[in-house]
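Sequence only, no structure available. Ideas?
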Amino acid sequence: MGLFTRRSQNVNVQDGAVATLEVDPALAALTGDYVIDPAHSSIGFTVRHAMVTNVRGAFTEHEGSLHLDGADPSRSTASIDVKIASVDTGIADRDGHLRSGDFFDAEAFPLMTFRSTEARQLGGDTYRITGELTIKDVTRPLSIDLEFNGSATDPYGNERVGFEGSTEILRSDWGLTWNAALEAGGVMVSDKVKLTFDISAIKQA
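Reply:
I predicted one. Tokens follow.
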């Protein structure tokens, strides 16, 4: 059953039977405000390099919050701030290039942000959250498809929910246009970038 799925019940009244919607109590109990746990969450990316292989990386410093509504998914929201300087591909020189003015210009634009504007259920445990992604002061719409992985109480008494998902963007839409031509044709870095999200969030009292 999905996070925001409602159950239908028939209720008999004096003048006949009418159908009503009852929120599943287990799902309704998840309604509330959550803070993303950066120690158990990841925001990653994959980009084609030299037309032949993929380079993977992540932003290791980020913070965010969620509001989940177990009765009405359209009232759910998400907000995430990512520290650009935390980009990590495992190669120091490459990370330095990504932080430079050729790409993110982390000194001038230290944060990448996402602010949701809409949420809806696609079916089952899959949801789509749409919002505005800002990179280098360029703001454009972005939709992310997420799968609800479930909820649990951890050994420290924290109520957690988990989501994972992905989306694809064209980096040039946010002004990230640096590239180099290859002798055999093509370019060094693809325009298309896959973003991945694995989120664990803790419910606030």
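Confidence is low (pLDDT under 50) at residues 1-21.
Hope that gets you unstuck.
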